[in-house]
Amino acid sequence: MSESSPELTPVPPATVVLISGASRGLGLAMVTDLLGRGLKVAAFARTVTPELDALAAAYPATSHFGSVDITDDSACQAFVKEVEAKLGVIDALVNNAAIGQDSLHVHTPADRIEQIIATNLTAPLVLTRFWLRRLLGKGRRGRLVNITSICGQRGYPGLVAYSATKAGLDGATRSIAREFSGRVVANAVAPGFFASEMSAVLGQTQLDAILRRTPSGRLTTPEEVVPVVRMLLLEETNINGQAIVIDGAGSI
Predict the structure, then answer these.
(1) Number of domains in the chain
(2) Are 168 and 124 contacting, i.e. CB atoms less than 8 angstroms apart?
(3) DSSP string over the chain
(4) pLDDT at residue 5 above 50?
(5) In what order do the strands lie in the sheet with 142-147?
(6) For residue 75, what is the domain's CATH number?
(7) Is 4 inside a domain boundary?
(8) Cα–Cα distance, 100 to 173 (Å, whole number)
(9) What is the dihedral angle through the alpha carbons of 244, 247, 248, 252, rounded to the nearest 10 degrees?
(10) CA–CA distance, 88 with 218 (Å, rounded to integer)
(11) What range defines the domain where residue 59 resides?
């Protein structure tokens, strides 16, 4: 009778977290929360906002922010190396950067479709690949959280390309959880529509319909998403390869 495989030890909590798309909204809320809890946090966005500058001043030793376009692979890789030099090995990645869509599919130019896919799906996968290679090359284990969307699981007019990218990232999350079993805990968090510029792409009629069929009677807020992301990054958990929906039960 062969010996059974030893039980794997849980992946440790994150200590150095990299967050993309952190200039405002959910990204900024995650950065603020994790810095306040004593973690080392790096973040980038196309523009470093005054809010990020204020956090850099408040947490000079445990933060590192930069202006980076996620579709610029070389710039992303250079930023990762900067973070490692200042904060240490990045043992958690949160893919949050994304752009929206505000047109029916037949009216969306081909170059806009390509831009949405490049920003929301291709770039996060390339960044994740680079992060994983450096993490595992140093003999470390880590945690991955992909911020996706309820749009990846349900259909909404005017969001065809956007929905496709979020569904793709959900699928990638499941595959990464299997491919790197025991070494990386990978999950997605799929919020419903935020009361923000991302929901502005919907007309009032659509928003009213979403609110009517949402038992909670309101849109999602970043403050409701942050604790779930924090749990996936910091707590010992057997949640792996999942897309956790936070939408007030609107999708049930």
Answers:
(1) 1
(2) no
(3) -PPPPPPPPPPPPPSEEEEES-SSHHHHHHHHHHHHTT-EEEEEESS--HHHHHHHHH-TTTEEEEE--TT-HHHHHHHHHHHHHHH----EEEE-------S-GGGS-HHHHHHHHIIIIIHHHHHHHHHHHHHHHTT--EEEEEE--GGGTS--TT-HHHHHHHHHHHHHHHHHHHHTTTTEEEEEEEE--BSSTTGGGS-HHHHHHHHHT-TT-S-B-HHHHHHHHHHHHHS-----S-EEEESTTTT-
(4) no
(5) 63-67, 40-45, 16-20, 92-95, 142-147, 184-191, 243-246
(6) 3.40.50.720
(7) no
(8) 20
(9) -80
(10) 40
(11) 16-246
Q: How confident is the model at residue 199 (pLDDT cuts 50, 70, 90)?
A: low
Catalytic residues: 162
**pLDDT value, residue 197:** 55
Q: What is the pTM of this model?
A: 0.94
Say yes or no to pLDDT of 219 above 90: no
